[in-house]
Amino acid sequence: MIMFVTCCQKFAVKRLFENSTHIILEIRITYVRREDASADCQWLYFENKSEALIKLWLKSSDSSPVVEEQFFEQGYLKFNCQQATFIEKFNSAQYTLERKPSEQLTEQLGILIHNYLS
Question: pTM for the full model?
Answer without folding.
Answer: 0.86
